[in-house]
Amino acid sequence: MRDNMENxxxxxxxxxxxxxxxxxxxxxxxVTLAAxxxxxYAIVMAMNGRFDLAATGVFCAMVLxxxxxxxxxxxxxxxxxxxxxxxxxxxxxxxxAPALIAYEWALKGxxxxxxxxxxxxxxxxxxxxxxxxxxxxxxxxxxxQGLPSPAAAAMVTGFIWIMTELDYxxxxxxxxxxxxxxxxxxxxxxxxxxxxxxxxxxxxSVPFAAIVSVALxxxxxxxxxxxxxxxxxxxxxxxxxxxxxxxxxxGQPTSMISTSxxxxxxxxxxxx
Length: 272
Description:
Helices cover about 70% and strands about 0% of the residues. The protein is an all-alpha fold. It has a two-stranded antiparallel ribbon.
């Protein structure tokens, strides 16, 4: 009996030492997978010549990409796996998809210049996401360092969407498409600050006029979604340079990297 008791105690101690199985939070990762599907859907639609649906797929991925992080924070289900999954989804939806859509729609007719422009955009998106991941702890949360990849994707696919709605052939606007790809891509890897809206508190009460403004904004977007959305993201894509100029003129730091250099890993990152 004593042996059985000892064996039982030993079994309990071994089971107590076993680490709990690691799992994956289903809810935020389902949203991330849905965003990934939006990017994949956009590529497939571009291959089939449905560029309006391809642009819609990227914009749907943008909405879902903005939700997965909020869902994770609201349900307290943040994880390192979710962060990596989100980055990979962003690379497909906002890196590869816009580049391939732009190439299939217009840039293919420019030969070497076309695929170079598409690759520059895709490569800059990858560099932007990698830099964002490693600089998360040292960047001022109120600003993005460079144009965020969803906004860059919105500029590229928004132009395609509006031109498709206006019945323009991609070949007729191939060079403007090239310029937009290069501008969006290179702006992603600059140190130009872009307002992140992360300091907006959604849980705080707001004046009644704010709700009315939101309703008016939704109404304006519905007048002609391609034109309004493309216009909004063009303004946002230019706003960083305006903010850079204003801060430079006032003698304020133009880099969004924290000014603390106490940590060795942060040295050399603080360039204005």
